[in-house]
Amino acid sequence: MRAVDELLKAKVLLPAIKRPADFDIVEFFSEYGRYIAHLAIVIKNDHGEVFYESSCAPCSMENARKLKTCLDLASALDIEYTFLVYCFSDTVLSKRFGVVREGVETPPFDFRKFICPNKPEYRQYLSEIIREIEELRPSSIVLMDVRYPWRNFCFCKRCRSEFAEYAGSPTILTSSHYLLEVLQQYEQYYEMWLEWRSKVVSEALAEILSKKKEGIPVYVEIILDPVSEMYKGLVEFFAQDIEKMAQFVDGFMVNLFPYSGVPNERVTIEILEPLLATNKDVRIFYEGKIDDRAIKVLRYISSKLESERVFINIGGQK
Amino acid sequence: MKEVYKFGIPALDEALGGGYVDGSIVLVEDEMGIPSEVLLAHFIVQGLRSGDDIIVLLSEHPISYYIALINLLGFNAEMAIKMGRLVFIDAMLNPFVAGKRVPYYSKYAVRNVGSISEVRQALQSAIQELKEPQKLRIVIDSLSQFLPPLVQNPQQVVIFLQQQMVERKERGGVFMALLHRDCHEPQIIKSVEYIVDSVISLERVKTEAGKPAEIILRFLKHDDLVLFEKLQNQSFIYKFEGGKLAVYEMGKIPLRTDLGW
Ligand SMILES: [Zn+2]
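^ inputs. structure came back:
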């Protein structure tokens, strides 16, 4: 942790707190407060819990108080704070709005916590949470997990029937169970399916932000893992179309290797190019294992990006 | 750590050693006219804040009344209903308000006057829709509609409570039902008290001559006998301050009400 410590103090890396409930905020601020310009903190986690007094999401009084202390201290020390909001991952509600997997392919994380982005009630719920956290005056908001979990999702009733309609209801799609394999055999339908999924995700993004007032910039998380051909992989795996999403946000936050946890030396600034080409602000988030190689990669990326934009998950390291 | 079910009312949660343990069957006894539903609403809202799923069966109030109570406590009831975390079962028997019901709020209804077997069925379907919830709170306001003199025989309620006892111990969750003590013969109250794990009583008591009666909350029974040793010697004032429910132990400095949500 020594290297991270130095990089935080040198303002090369910015701290991100992924588990505010288990984090000693006061201790952290007394150690680092004077060096930190900007802090990212999870305000709604992928369990579904929020860390402020919400009128619609679960939250313990103790955790809400803890976050309030954190925000008060940050304000007193003139530290900006950004909120990370886990969107389509929510264990509390996934049993009701969860995704349906097709086939045996299993993503490298627990997909059971994922929510289908094609559920209007849940989108409204998120928009309400965004409306509420705006009142806490963060300097920016980052929307995490605005995506389908993997390429073999989602085959819930709603997704199936809406896609069939989108594709003009050909027989293969209106039969009671069409499969991913079938789609992949008919290339035109597979392309259409990818197109349709990314439309769903972009519409979900727009709806999440529909109650937000102007002013506080919004970022959306982009995962750079496990795909090497980022652009193709993003759409195919996660249904994230950068250009479509760019219409609704001020920037992107690239989550580096959250699953493989293997920082690769081949990773250079070039992989960020499609994102930088959108002329939107680009930030980095690293939550994986912190070792020398990770530090090397992060330091490199940080030096290539103009400002201090690399957030690193501190505390609660796996 | 063991899962507990709090009220979100510091004085009561503290007295209960953190809250009710999983599997508890709780009876709240009151006298007609005491606003006990506010206590139940606190229990519901605390559940929503804790991520629990809630089923509320109402036989004396329209659903919209409870929605208003929950909203007043700072939780968006409509949103919780949409998220499927709050399910109402409509068992209103009053024909004068029946027409005003908004069907969207409740998919489940008990139409057969005083039929506890219909209550059981509605509860079963509601639980099924929640897909085996991890933490469940069941609230019934009230059981009085299903006991003599409103029905002939108390036996059905006794069996119902015994079934709940078995189910909650097996599958988890806390069951809380309200009963109006002054509506029933004492032996009926006794037979219901006998089954449950914990009994809270709310009654009007004259504490000082010339002053209006206060509502006093007491624990009449609790299955944790060590805890009950202490509970049986405690009384709590139950009152409204600035429109908010304030519960504090008699003889102690009132806990700051803003410690709740
Ligand atoms: Zn779906």
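The pocket of zinc ion is lined by residues A 99, 116, 118, 154, 156, 158-159 (CB under 6 Å). Strands of chain A lie at 14-17, 38-44, 80-86, 140-144, 218-224, 251-256, 281-286, 310-314.
thumbs up if we can close this ticket
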